[in-house]
Amino acid sequence: MRLLIALLLPWLTFFTIGRPIAGIICLILQLTLIGWLPATIWAVYALSQYNTDKKIQRSMR
Q1: 5-9, long-range: CB < 8 A, 24+ apart
Q2: For FRET with 47, which of 5, 33, 54, 57 sits at 20 to 30 Å CA-CA?
Q3: If you average pLDDT over every residue of the chain, what do you get?
C-alpha cells in the first residue's frame, strides 16, 4: 500500500514512515511538474530503506 502512495503522492510516504521534514521538502519538490519524477524516485528509495531498516531491527531481536 505504501508503494502505491509513493507513486501517487510521494510526500505522503514520508509522513507514513515518520519523516515529516522530508515530507514537506518532497511536497515542495512535487509542486513543480519537473520535480514530480525525482520526488517519486526519492519516496520509493526512502520506503525501500525504511523496509530494510525494519527487517534489520527484527533480526536483531
Answers
A1: 6/40, 6/43, 6/44, 6/47, 7/40, 7/43, 7/44
A2: 33
A3: 92
